[in-house]
Amino acid sequence: MDLLLIRHGQSHGNVAGLLNSTEQDELTEHGLQQAANLRATIDRLGLKPDRVYSSPWRRALQTTEVLFRDRCEWTLDRRLGETNPGKFASWKAEEFRVAYPEFGKHLSDRYEGGESHLELAARSINWLEEAFLPHADTPGLMVAVCHAGPVSVISQYLLSIPLSLFPSVLVPNASLTMFRRNEHKDGFHLHLAGVS
């Protein structure tokens, strides 16, 4: 089974440069148009999902609705949410980096009232191991509509890039990243990378 990771379209938090924002952050008009364009790209590439999972965070769910409404059902899974920045959700990312220059040197650094990137990684990998990998040897396409954090964690896992290098895979808003089973040896290869 192939795995298609889709990052949500541009959100208001993206435009403002916020640090992950909140679960309620919505798509901008441009983000909605990006999602519509991505739907056309999915059609052009002939991608027909057998299973679709979505982060319940509003911007990802809106993207899922544009992509797959009237086509298929989807399952919401909290494990695909972005890193919860806690009390820093309304902070600009640059301001946070200036105020806390040491934060992030360890994946276990936790945002006050939120979570760490290590916790993000644990739940993203848990989703991969429970939802996708048991079906990896069967034909078809599984889709996960989520955020930059889970896309990076899952991509690094499938490409055998150490988690200590997170985030090594950064993709733009409204993009497709697809993995296929490697027919010649164990593991997966990157078939599409950040296509929008």
Task: Write structural notes for this entry.
With 196 residues, the protein is of the alpha/beta class. It has a single domain (2-195), classed as Rossmann fold. Helices cover 34% and strands 17% of the residues. It has helices at 12-16, 29-44, 58-68, 93-99, 117-132, 148-158; strands at 2-7, 51-54, 75-76, 141-146, 175-181, 188-195. The radius of gyration is 16 Å and the shape is globular. The mean pLDDT is 96.
Average the pLDDT over all residues and give the rounded result: 96
Instruction: Specify the CATH architecture.
Output: 3-Layer(aba) Sandwich
Q: State the helicity in percent bands.
A: 25-40%
* End-to-end distance: 22 Å
Overall morphology:
globular
Report a brief summary of the structure:
The protein contains six helices and six strands. It has 196 residues and is an alpha/beta fold. It is globular, with a radius of gyration of 16 Å.
